[in-house]
Structure formats: C-alpha cells, structure tokens
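Subject: design request, 245 residues
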C-alpha cells in the first residue's frame, strides 16, 4: 500500500544526542524505505544539511521550549509523528502501519494513534485503556487510551495534543526521565482521544538508560556505522525493547 502524504516527525533531541537521532532516522529508512516522515531535528549549535527527509531547526536548549518551538508553526489539527530520540524502531509491519496511519488521519474522532501495544497498555488494560473496542472498516480493533499512557513511544498525534501537554509541563524540566512523572500532573483532556491497536505491529528499542547507551542500541548503531562520541561508547549491557511481534 502507498504511504500517506508527508508527515512532520517532531524529534525530541539535543546536540549531545545527535548520534541517537541519526540512528532513529537511519532505522526508519532501513526498515521502511517509503516511510512518509520528514524529521524535524532541533539543534542548538550542531546543525546539518537539510534533505527531503530531514529538516534542522534552531531551537532553545530546554526540553519544553524545544517542543513548543517545533510546534509553533503547525496548526492544531495537523497530524505530526511524535518521535523521541530515546526510542528507535527495530521491527515495523510497514504495509499494515501505512494503512492504519492513513485511516487514522482521515478519522475526525481520532487525535492520537499508537501501533505499538506494549507494557502497561498490554499488561494492565483495566488501568490504561477504556474497555470498549472500536473497529475500523478493515476489521482492525482499537482501544482508547486513558490519560497519557505510552505517550513517549513513537506515534501519530494531532499537534494540539502535544502542544497542550508541553504547555502545561513546568518550564524547567531537569531531564527527559522526569517527564514520565510530570506528565501525570497534567490531566489529559477528554476530547483529546488517543487510541492504540489491539494487536501490536512494531518493536522499538530504548536508546539509553539513565543516560547510558543500552546494549541493543550500541550494537545497532555499530552495525549502522554511526560514529559514537567518546562518552557514549560504553554500553550498560542491558537489552531493552518494547513490543513483540
């Protein structure tokens, strides 16, 4: 199936982690050569050359300022692909994902769409999901997500959802890790309806744990031929992935 029209992929990253950003972009290109994403990469001093698939944008150094800056010229209703650099794709059922994304973008009742069902949305659905099943015309089943569960995994969102979340986070966010707790202090608006597929169609890896590169990310980046900065060359020995196919 042909991919949807080009979608702005909003990458949460900074200069220090440019290697992980390159890895994310490389993996999407390797696994899904016809993917619809144009990666919007923020930077402070370490720019790059724009291509058809990558745009480099000067941004503030703080996390909240970076995200809101990347969203500044995007309409509330426009679809974006939320793409934190601490996750990267390992396996993607690309034809299915393309079809699901295409349908979600034509559905006015959908404001967020996740095709990786894992962790709490899989193991604790009573806490994380509403019980009613929603079917699309092709028979695929979705669940609506409660609160902000799994908001850091790569997913399709209307810009207004991400803008609302980050507008209400504190101005000072000391690290990306603490966002997981801070998000729980921001009530998700009921009209911002976020969905996840009943079946999983992707596997993602975590790039770091507590600022140290994971073993799986290290091995993947080595295989990709991506040069690592000196401080990033000592993996923690952990393999951390999300989702199973």
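Subject: RE: design request

Done. Sequence follows.
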């Amino acid at each position: 199936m042909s991919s949807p029209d080009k979608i702005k992929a909003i990458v949460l990253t900074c200069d220090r982690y440019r290697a992980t950003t390159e890895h994310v972009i490389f993996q999407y290109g390797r696994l899904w050569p016809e993917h619809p994403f144009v990666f919007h990469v923020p930077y402070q001093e370490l720019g790059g050359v724009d291509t058809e698939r990558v745009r480099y944008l000067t941004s503030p150094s703080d996390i909240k300022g970076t995200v809101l800056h990347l969203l500044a010229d995007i309409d509330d209703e426009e679809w974006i692909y939320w793409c934190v650099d601490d996750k990267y794709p390992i396996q993607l059922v690309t034809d299915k994902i393309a079809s699901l994304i295409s349908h979600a973008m034509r559905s006015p009742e959908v404001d967020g769409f996740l095709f990786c069902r894992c962790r709490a949305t899989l193991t604790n659905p009573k806490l994380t999901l509403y019980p009613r099943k929603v079917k699309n015309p092709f028979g695929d089943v979705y669940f609506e997500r409660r609160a902000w569960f799994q908001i850091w995994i790569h997913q399709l969102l209307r810009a207004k959802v991400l803008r609302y979340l980050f507008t209400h986070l504190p101005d000072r966010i000391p690290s990306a890790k603490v966002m997981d707790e801070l998000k729980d202090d921001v009530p998700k608006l009921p009209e911002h309806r976020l969905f996840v597929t009943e079946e999983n169609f992707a596997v993602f890896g975590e790039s770091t744990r507590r600022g140290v590169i994971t073993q799986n990310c290290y091995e993947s980046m080595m295989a990709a031929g991506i040069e690592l900065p000196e401080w990033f060359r000592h993996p923690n020995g952990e393999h951390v992935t999300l989702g199973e196919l």
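The domain at 7-242 is CATH 3.90.550 (Spore Coat Polysaccharide Biosynthesis Protein SpsA; Chain A).
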